[in-house]
Amino acid sequence: VKGLTRNVFSLVSGSRSSKTFKPKKNIPEGSHQYELLKHAEATLGSGNLRQAVMLPEGEDLNEWIAVNTVDFFNQINMLYGTITEFCTEASCPVMSAGPRYEYHWADGTNIKKPIKCSAPKYIDYLMTWVQDQLDDETLFPSKIGVPFPKNFMSVAKTILKRLFRVYAHIYHQHFDSVMRLQEEAHLNTSFKHFIFFVQEFNLIDRRELAPLQELIEKLGSKDR
């Protein structure tokens, strides 16, 4: 199975900057992963998102999911980076997606018991955790010929489930800021691509998608 070199964002003094996130694409030109990414971008350009998320003929499912997971991580990183000044300890003392949904952080290793924390702190934990998974050669192998581990799909599902929560927080708590910045078309397209992808491969449980269910139905109704 072919490997994957991931995108990574800039590190500031060994940790992510609290204000801006700067993802850096690092999939090498000429590699198979780069060709897959280019294929994804080309099919996205066609405007048919349902078709764009389908596994290309003859490709490995794990690698397709890996390449797209990296891409979604970068997209969400950039989208959240545009509104970090509005997402503060004061404005968002809890990580929520509307009044009915609140998230507590645990990663199973460093923080085993879920803790209540502010949205910026939660998202910092979340994005740092995702980056750690993407940087783990045993989970996301970068060398050609190194197989994906047996638990890869489980890890990918957890990553995508958690990335969804950042979209949910942005939509519920910061959409007015997104509109003021005229970023709503970018956010909607990114989220629609994300949702069609996770639906195509059944990667996120429907219950986890509940905070944005109405939006998901609205986005999907135009493509049926």
Automatic annotation (TrEMBL):
Pfam families from the UniProt entry: Mob1_phocein
Protein name: MOB1A kinase
List of residues binding Zn(2+): 87, 92, 169, 174
Record key words, sorted: Kinase, Metal-binding, Transferase, Zinc
Record GO terms (molecular function): kinase activity
InterPro entries assigned: MOB_kinase_act_fam (IPR005301), MOB_kinase_act_sf (IPR036703)
